[in-house]
Design brief:
11 helices, globular, alpha/beta, 339 residues
Length: 339
């Protein structure tokens, strides 16, 4: 008779303030991936219910405020100027258009408004305008998030002064696979930006992409990297590769759906109080797969018709799915962080 390899909730919570985060080795995370599927989901559900209302999902909307023309060579991204992804470069959106989109997102039920610009890093001439966007969106009563590429310490402090709630900067993959996907920015560059964001007092949104052609062990390596950030990110978007025509990853074989659900569950177990977000690739998921992801501990989605450049399930369909599952698309906030 098989026994369930169980990790008690108490073993993955920080016992008191100031104690360093639990260290997750890649081998320990890989062991979670190897659990029988139902055992893994059961553990993830236990952890999730210890920290969240299991029927609440946080809704975020993402707007591309500056599209295309990026000098980076990220193999998955159609916004790279080095790829033929069919995305035309645009200038930074005017403030009034951004605020109109934020107002529409709020009316649709979103609680967080994320703004993304296709830059390697913002130029100083752009910082005043993006700060005004942060201030304007916050004035509408929405949480604010931005992803602008790499930041230095001063830029992070400028965004903090503007009132930015979250900064998104993904690790994308495990360190030993990263060079297969990107050559224009190092892994350490990404970690440095995360440090500047954290030091400025801004919440961190940081996740990765699965289905890039990585192995399961490399997926475990990505989760270990995220879980070992101290503290780990407040939001962890898990993206399922959209293999856009014209990018180097066009034609990449899709990841097995159950492996994607496993990734969600392992992220939940290793980062108990984070918001685990279903991000890119949700358009390709049927309702049953999304329901499994929520059962595995996902409690945040990007909500609306588009992400930065790819389609996303429409809000009306999401509301219908939530009604069928008995989910409430609201804040999904954890209790005071104790992990």
């Amino acid at each position: 008779m098989n026994t369930v390899a169980s990790i008690p909730v108490s073993a993955i919570r920080r016992p008191e303030a100031g104690v360093p985060a639990t260290r997750w080795s890649v081998a320990a995370v890989a062991e979670l991936f190897e659990l029988p599927f139902m055992d893994l989901l059961f553990q993830a559900q236990q952890v999730h219910r210890a920290h969240f209302d299991p029927n609440e999902v946080q809704l975020s909307t993402l707007l591309s405020i500056k599209t295309g023309g990026c000098s980076e060579d990220c193999g998955y991204c159609p916004q790279s100027a080095q790829h033929e992804g069919g995305v035309e470069a645009s200038k930074l959106m005017p403030l009034d258009e951004v605020l109109a989109a934020a107002q529409a997102a709020r009316e649709q039920g979103a609680s967080r408004f994320c703004m993304g610009a296709a830059w390697r890093s913002p130029k100083e001439r752009d910082m005043e305008q993006v700060a005004e966007m942060v201030q304007g969106v916050r004035a509408l009563g929405l949480e604010t998030c931005m992803t602008l590429g790499m930041l230095d310490q001063q830029q992070a402090l400028q965004l903090k002064d503007a009132g930015l709630d979250y900064y998104n900067h993904n690790l994308d993959s495990a360190p030993d696979f990263y060079g297969e996907i990107i050559s224009t920015r190092t892994y350490q560059d990404r970690l440095d930006t995360l440090r500047h964001v954290r030091d400025a007092g801004i919440n961190v949104c940081c996740g990765g992409i699965v289905g890039l052609g990585e192995t399961r062990e490399q997926r475990a390596g990505l989760i270990a990297q995220l879980a070992n950030l101290d503290p780990y990110p407040e939001s962890v978007p898990i993206n399922n590769l959209v293999a856009v025509p014209g990018t180097p990853l066009e034609g990449t074989e899709p990841i097995d759906p159950f492996e994607f659900v496993r990734t969600i569950a392992v992220a939940r177990i290793t980062m108990p109080t984070t918001m685990v977000r279903l991000s890119a690739g949700r358009e390709q998921m049927d309702d049953a797969l999304q329901a499994l992801c929520f059962a595995a501990g996902a409690n945040s989605i990007f909500y609306g018709d588009r992400l930065l450049t790819t389609c996303n399930p429409q809000a009306e369909h999401d509301r219908a799915l939530f009604a069928r599952l008995g989910l409430n698309g609201q804040g999904a906030r954890p209790a005071a962080r104790q992990d």
